[in-house]
Specification:
The chain is α+β, with helices and mostly antiparallel strands. It contains three helices and seven strands. The chain has a three-stranded mixed β-sheet with strand order 2-5-3. Strands 1-4 form a two-stranded antiparallel ribbon.
């Protein structure tokens, strides 16, 4: 019996050994995965936490812009964008450009590049811009005044012409009325026939016409035909 059972026992031991070894391998892999997962998660969280929103610093003096950026963990690099001068006192410079721009996301520890101008240059540019604006306003006002004066002169010329035309028309009307009145007054005098010369009375017998005319004949036929007939 012992000789027959020995191979079976050996196979059983071998099977148990393989099972234990497999369990150990599985346990080891699971532990490694469990240990790896927290590390990857922590790295991702750290990467997100390192990204910072870049503030807008244009218009600030370089010293204040640098202080604000460095507090957020950024490095600052500044360059004179106008003349390439060396920057000594940061308070004498003004930020004109920035990269990355305001509101961008950048990694903590990265560099923000600033373009700056000396405050003297900024003041000179501002004064030049104000002078140019004032000159433009003065030129526009002068042009507007000149246009207004030309318009007023044109309106005066037009008004004077209208007044002269009205006066001429009134004079012409008056002259025509005077001519019409003179013509009307002269018309009856020209139309009236000359009065006939009175006929000398016929002492030998005469015929008296209706208008007082003395017909110089005793013949009644045709007498006083042009003088209203014979008086009754």
């Amino acid at each position: 019996m012992k000789e027959n059972s020995s191979p079976a026992v050996g196979r059983l031991k071998k099977t148990l050994a393989l099972a234990v070894l497999a369990g150990l391998l599985l346990t080891g892999c699971g532990g490694k995965q469990a240990a790896t997962q927290p590390t990857a998660t922590a790295t991702a969280v750290a990467a997100v936490a390192e990204n910072v929103t870049v503030p807008g610093v244009t218009g600030l003096t370089l010293d204040k812009a640098t202080e604000q950026l460095e507090k957020l963990g950024f490095k600052v690099e500044s360059v004179d964008s106008a003349h390439g001068k060396s920057i000594v006192l940061k308070k004498n410079w003004q930020v004109t450009t920035q990269d990355p721009a305001s509101g961008a996301q950048a990694a903590k520890g990265s560099t923000v590049h600033l373009g700056v101008k000396n405050l003297d240059d900024v003041a000179a540019e501002k004064a030049a811009a104000e002078k140019a604006a004032a000159d433009k306003a003065a030129a526009e006002k002068a042009a507007a005044d000149q246009a207004a004066a030309a318009k007023a002169a044109a309106e005066k010329v037009a008004a004077d012409k209208a007044a002269a035309d009205q006066a001429a028309a009134a004079k012409a009307a008056a002259d025509q009325a005077a001519r019409d009145a003179a013509a009307k007054q002269a018309a009856p005098q020209q139309a009236a026939p000359p009065a006939p010369a009175p006929a000398a009375p016929n002492m030998g017998g005469a015929i008296i016409c209706s208008d007082g005319y003395v017909w110089p004949s005793t013949t009644r036929q045709g007498a006083c035909s042009k003088h209203g007939g014979i008086a009754k």
